[in-house]
């Protein structure tokens, strides 16, 4: 089942969007996976708001949540300028990150928490897709 949501590029909208996505994904993932999902999605949405500077501030971030039998897929498309092509390549491991830095932890954290990531930079918007596999039945 696919859900398409729109969010204005505004930090004040993050909590509401995360709450809506969490509600839609409720019962799909285990508690541990759900925690990973929530943290990774919040980091990705925060990055989309803070770093994807758009020439059109009224253009929303489009979030697609697709629930499949064996996984949950979330796609976040910002309205910003093209990000570096290698943004999600050669990502530092968490122990390599300066804990005192004010930024720079989001991409490594997303990479660690999601089961699979694909990133497609583009002019007029960048697309991040994260997949969270459902746990095998016990």
Index terms:
5-stranded antiparallel beta sheet; globular; 138 residues; alpha+beta
Main sheet specs: 5 strands, antiparallel
Structural category: alpha+beta
Oligomer state equals single chain
The overall average pLDDT, rounded, is 85
Radius of gyration: 15 Å
Query: Strands of the largest sheet, in order across it?
Result: 1-2-3-5-4
Number of helices: 3
Query: How much helix, percentage-wise, in residues?
Result: 25-40%
Q: Choose one word for the global shape.
A: globular
What does the secondary structure layout of this molecule look like, with pairings?
Layout (H helix, E strand, L loop, with lengths): L1 E6 L6 H12 L5 H21 L9 E7 L3 E7 L28 H8 L2 E5 L6 E7 L5
Antiparallel strand pairs: 1-2, 2-3, 3-5, 4-5
Helix pairs in contact: 1-2, 2-3
Task: Please provide a written account of the structure.
With 138 residues, this protein is an alpha+beta fold. Helices cover 30% and strands 23% of the residues. It contains three helices and five strands, in the order βααββαββ. A five-stranded antiparallel sheet has the order 1-2-3-5-4, covered by helices on one side. Helix 1 runs antiparallel to helix 2 and helix 2 runs antiparallel to helix 3. The longest helix is centred in the first third of the chain and has 21 residues. The chain is globular. The chain starts with a strand and ends in a 5-residue tail after the last strand.
């Amino acid at each position: 089942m696919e859900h398409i949501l729109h969010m204005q590029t505004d930090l004040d909208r993050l909590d509401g969007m995360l709450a809506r996505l969490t509600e839609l994904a409720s019962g799909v993932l285990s508690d541990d996976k759900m925690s990973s999902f929530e943290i990774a999605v919040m980091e990705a949405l925060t990055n989309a708001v803070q770093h994807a500077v758009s020439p059109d501030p009224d253009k929303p971030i489009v979030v697609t949540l697709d629930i499949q039998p064996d996984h949950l897929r979330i796609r976040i498309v910002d309205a910003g300028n093209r990000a570096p092509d290698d943004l999600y390549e050669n990502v530092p491991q968490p122990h390599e990150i300066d804990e005192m830095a004010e930024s720079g932890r989001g991409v490594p954290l997303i990479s660690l928490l999601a089961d699979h990531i694909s990133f497609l930079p583009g002019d007029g918007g960048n697309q991040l897709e994260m997949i969270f596999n459902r746990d095998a039945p016990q």
